[in-house]
Amino acid sequence: MGKMFKGMGDMAKMMKAAKDMQDKMAEMQDEMDKITVTGESGAGLVRATATAKGELTALEIDPSIFHPDEKEVVEDLILAAIKDAQAKAAERSQQEMAKMAEGLGLPADMKLPF
């Protein structure tokens, strides 16, 4: 009978650990909305800012690139800046998740969320 209660204690510890991990994941998701990265193209003529979740929050375009005959160039620069911001957001997100995994005693290369 003592073994049965010991098993229940282990289960309670596992449930608490799972709840702690869930709380930390929710906290991390909130933090990802606050962390921003900036991608750029054209030597800084176009800058795109995004959250670590990859949501585009701002776009800055130097007015010197607005020439009617260079519309395609401007479009390419905008797309390049957005892609750069998204790549940086993904990288930052992975860094933050690795920190959290390490804090939980999990292998740093473990992919979170599961």
Tell me briefly what this model is.
The protein is of the alpha+beta class and 114 residues long. Helix content is 58%, strand content 16%.
- Give the class from helix and strand content and strand pairing: alpha+beta
Percent of residues in beta strands: 15-25%
Assign an overall shape. rod-shaped
Mean pLDDT: 84
Instruction: Calculate Rg over CA atoms.
Output: 22 Å
Number of helices: 2
> How is the largest sheet built, in terms of strand order?
1-2-3
Helical content band: 55-70%
Provide a descriptive summary of the structure in words.
With 114 residues, the protein is α+β, with helices and mostly antiparallel strands. The protein is built from two helices and three strands, in the order αβββα. A hairpin with a 4-residue loop joins strand 2 (46-51) and strand 3. Helix 1 runs antiparallel to helix 2 (71-103). The two termini are 35 Å apart. 11% of the residues are buried.
Question: Secondary-structure blueprint of this entry?
Answer:
Blueprint (H helix, E strand, L loop, with lengths): L1 H33 L1 E6 L4 E6 L4 E6 L9 H33 L11
Antiparallel strand pairs: 1-2, 2-3
Helix pairs in contact: 1-2
